[in-house]
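> tool_call: predict_assembly(chains=two)
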Amino acid sequence: MDRASVDQLLTTTRTVRKRLDLRRPVEPAVIQECLELAIQAPNGGNQNRYHFVVVTDPVKRAAVGAIYKKVFSRRQVVHLGVAYYTGTDFKPGPRIPARARTYWDGWGQQR
Amino acid sequence: MDLVTVDKLLTTTRSVRARLDLTRLVPPELIEECLEIAVQAPQGSGNCRYQFIVVTDAAKRRELADLYRKAFVQFYPPEAIAKGMQTQPRDTASWIALHDHFEDAPALIIACTEGRPENRSPERLAGLYGNILPIAWSLMLALRARGVGAAWTTIVFTYEKEVAEILQLPENLTPSVCLPVAYFTGDDFKPAKRVPARERTHWNTWGARR
């Protein structure tokens, strides 16, 4: 497996907010294709309990948006807004290094 | 981006249980490298609430395995296993393989989030686990690309207090997933049998198809 592609994918898939191209529709077939890939992730006991609701209807999107704005101060993420993004120069995000948060065999123990 | 590689990675990263090579050590440096990649997963608001415990100590792995087995019989009593061997023989055999060899994986990675689930409303619970589950999944993907398999497990946290005691975890932490990891044997993983997403995708309102 091409490790460079894999590592780039895993380290540059950001939550995209400001760079969503809101004028360009995302084809339903693309969304469905991605959902088919996504459900290959492991799930407990292979019980397949997933369900997805995709909202494209402008009236319903506005209603969901109004609720989102109302509770924005609580900063919860319960749905995914999707759109094509602009540019392709995503970089790894600022993070506390995992090694600063990794303990070996017990809390507080470094390797 | 190379879609063939990406789609293969996403559709063939399985929970590996029966095909873990328990005779081969996973270098700690490889685990650290994958953890650094994994923490790049998106998070709600950039809070970096992750904490990881990597258990390689044989005595502690044994203690955790005993708790896992104690929980296992509650989730999968003998009659459920017998039924599983009829209806899902491959999956069931792989669960039993993990049950029997839980402590033999050279490392158990326990991914935790800061914060506790008690007294949270459902959407705030989603936020809590949202801090850590995308990271744990990215970790499995990064490991898989390096030949290392992992099994997604949670039932050991039936005995969360005992787990916390063994690992001396602080009280404000929620251990969220426990991944036994080891190199896998062979590399012919296939997509799993799933209910197709299109049968479970609703457009604009429940039950509406496209």
